[in-house]
Amino acid sequence: MPVVASLHRCARRVLPLALAVCSLSTALVAQGASTTDPRASLKPGWKDAGEAALNLRVVSTAWKPEGMYDARNLGNFAFLNSDLAFSGPYVFQGNFNGIQIWDASDLKRLKLKTMVTCPGGQGDVSVHGNLMFMSVEETRGRVDCGAGGVPDTVSAERFRGVRIFDISDIEHPTIITQVQTCRGSHTHTLLEDPKDKGVIYIYVQGTSVVRSPSELAGCSRVRPEQDANSSLFRIEVIRVPLASPKEAKVINSPRIFADSTGAIAGLWKGGAHGEGTQSTSETNQCHDITVYPAIGLAAGACSGNGIILDISDPANPKRTAEVIDPNFAYWHSANFSNDGSKVLFTDEWGGGTAPRCRVTDKMTWGADAIFAIKGRTLTLGGYYKLPVAQTASENCVAHNGSIIPVPGRDIMAQGWYQGGVSVFDFTDPAHVQEIAYFDRGPVSADTLHTGGSWAAYWHNGYLYSTEIARGLDVLELTPSAFLSANEIAAAALVRHDVNNPQTQLKNVWPAQAVVARAYLDQLVRGNGLRAVRTADIGAAIDAAEQATGAARKAAYAKLAKSLATDAKTASDAGRVKELAAVVEAMAK
Amino acid sequence: MLAPPRLIQTLAVALVAAGVAMPLAAQTPAAAADVAFMQGMIAHHAQAIDMVALIAQRTTTKAMRALGERINVSQKDEILMMQTWLRAQHQDAPDPLAHMDMDMGDHAMAMMPGMLTKAQMDALATAKGVAFDRLFLAGMIQHHTGALTMVRELFATTGAAQNTAIFRFASDVDADQRAEIARMRAMLNPMHLK
Fold this sequence. Notes:
heterodimer, A: alpha+beta, 5-stranded antiparallel beta sheet, B: mainly alpha
């Protein structure tokens, strides 16, 4: 395959780490989307679609069970798969028709443990202990989980908001309570109270029609200039007391878009950014909020803006920074880098159901934008868009993903709907580099059936891609010039028992030889330290690992000392110091 | 208000099955109002595309061209989506793009809320420069505001928007066109029309 050949040539000539001079994506972004990449012309089909993968291997695919798809119409919106959550051996997968709970004890063969039929969309799901949370936004959602919809425009039978299930018996989830909200719940985000382990909060992001006050008291459809209690221009915060989750209720509706004068719609009233720019949404809603408790911040992707919130008081999030971008149509989701110095926002231009990766579509529209965070200032560093053209039958735009915990680098996996899964390095936001991918051909050759990767999330050593029309893919990274076996192994050392991707988890690496070797591989690849030294250091680590007990510790202590000297002259001193810190920890 | 917790629990237990095949009952059918909304919105979108087609010859403003490109791409894609949906429902799917070369604004379709009259379209087709930009922006704001009216009326109709594709599309139309209205209002500010 010519693409692979050129990658290897490139990797020998210039070492692609921070300086991605020869990177796949940089080269292609400059020229627009590639039409010669294998992903551009895959055979259409449902279960028999053509597949292309680079540096990713499919471990298994769990196809949608009966009841979660419509065989006559594979793109039927009532059965789209949505978001994921992880807890213990289980993967929780949302669907517009309910929730699927997969037993992932054997990754080669996921088993459907439980299927909850409870329509209402999107079915975004989160888990905390024995509680499972589910977003419901549509006007057809019913209090009794029934399938008949709610024809009346005002009805006590309608449910829009967050359903809370007890999953202590995993095969028989039961609803504990359901918290109704004015715009329903398009997405939601869990946040533990840092001061009270007995309480969690749910941020509710509603984006669709505000319901009648006759149906839910207090709901108001008019703008805040007409009604200070407008249901627009806010999020809702649900407080869940874990000892008595049935008491869960909305306790606050923070006006996170207000300006310094107190105007509720103060943040961004919409408008032009100047010549040659795209339109931007009037910011009256957040689509998604990613909280990062370890740094006390959240990133809100809120229609016309990206915003940063201080969440140190979780019930009262306070906006600390905001940004607009001339190329963004709809701010959709966000991820922080592990160190919290960067935030990556996605632009879901076209809502996820349109084919926005055609060769004619701009590479800065419907893309990721990466910003550096410094206090109250966000500075644009660069864009990333799937570097490959997709057909008009494939819905494609930036969507959900998560950080892959490779020490020393910012790497993310992301779903691009029918553009597939793309793994990329954004350590240098100006030169984002794709390092792996997996894609299938369109669900249908001539009809756009909504499908593809809703999200690709890293969890305990593997990638899980929730496939809207097909099921759930488990993928494994394979070593390449862009990512070494040591780096992949180091990433797999980071374990989290529970993982709700919109609640970002801090990745911390144990002091183990493979972590040191990962940093060393990066120094070699990036010419961060003279080759004669990197060879010696590799040999020293090997020798220390051969030894045991006090001898091993002494060997590492000696190596740590020499690394401290290296750091003074190395061109990538920071990375040498990171390596030294791991070695020092192993000496103890 | 919520049903009592005990009732909900009983219902949920009945609805939850461990790996058992479920009947395909979850698809709420499309209502007549949904079909009319989609057919009407095709005509509505088609006029926006007619209007955008005038931009190339009649403006010198880059921001206008970018606006036009976005409207053109978005609304053409959405017309295709609406046609696909209507055909899947075995309903008549108007195809205005098939005779796009005809005179502007001359589709034999019902006037939907906000659509420009023949006289307004004629005025637009003869204007140039800043005068065109102003007429275009005012006309497209009127046009998009009509789409918001169509969405509001849809959600206010008993039995409508229970079909997920319709709910989602109507919600998207509301968000997208609201966004474009906000932008066009700002563009009407003389600062942006140099």
